[in-house]
Amino acid sequence: MLSHGLWDAVGVTNTDSNELLSRFPSLTPSLEYSMFGKVFVTFLILTLSAAHAKEQIASAGSKNNPLVGSWRLVSYTDTPKGGKALKAFGESPIGQFVFTDDGHISVHLMHNPPAPKNADVDPDPDACVPAWYCAYFGTYAYNAGDSTWTTRVVGGNIVTYIGTDQKRKFTIKDGRLIISETYTVDGVSYFGERILVRSTRVEK
Questions:
Q1: What is the pTM of this model?
Q2: Of 87, 111, 134, 144, which cross-links 128 as Cys (Cβ 3.0–4.6 Å)?
Q3: DSSP of 33-46, one letter per residue?
């Protein structure tokens, strides 16, 4: 059996080495001392690592990730402590969140009607340009432990988001995706809540 000398040389853990040997029991000590042996073992390790990666991606698929799919925005409010809710995207906002099972995300929010003249101003310091339409995209990771997802923002019209990780806390209740956060602007505490429902296909 191969000793830990070769495992260390190619960065293999005890768990990986045991799995490798269980799959390839014919590996012998003589293999350890040849260049071919090191190349061969490294190739096998990379193959196993790729297999593990595929298994991890599969485990984050639609069966285990409740976010996967398309969601339609029905409410977007920011309420100052002790005050009235502000509706920066109007009474009936338009929006869509799309989560793919391979870890990509696309977010779109639009005021209804678009380009309003007398709309509520979004108090969030990470406002969009223009203010009546927000969009960003990137990759995301779902964390079942604390009911959050974190987006790695690649692009969009929220300039301060680009290249950052944006974490969101959510709950899913009665078919609704509810995203909530608390933030402070100029000493005033706001509670932000966004509510979405699963999108349904419109038949022509």
A1: 0.65
A2: 134
A3: TSHHHHHHHHHHHH
Query: 10-57: per-residue pLDDT in tens?
Result: 344 454 545 544 554 554 444 444 444 444 434 434 444 444 444 333
- In which residue are the tokens 């639609």 written? 62
**Three-state DSSP class for 53?**
helix
The helix or strand, by DSSP H or E, that contains position 98, with its residue range, turns out to be strand 94-99
Q: Cα(53)–Cα(48) distance, rounded to whole angstroms?
A: 9
Burial 1-17 (b: 16+ CB within 10 A, else e): ebeeebbeebebeeebb
Summarize pLDDT for 121-159 with one digit per residue, the tens.
666 656 788 888 999 999 999 999 999 999 999 999 999
Helix (H, G, I), strand (E, B) or coil at 82: coil
Identify the burial level of 178 via C-beta atoms within 10 angstroms of its C-beta, where 0-12 means exposed, 13-18 middle and 19 or more buried.
middle
Distance CA 10, CA 40 (A): 11
| Cβ pair 182, 56 in contact under 8 A | no
Contact (CB, 8 A) for 112 and 95: no
Residue owning tokens 């709309």: 119
The whole-angstrom separation of Cα 27 and Cα 16 is 14
Cis previous bond, 130, omega within 30? yes
Identity of the residue numbered 201 = R
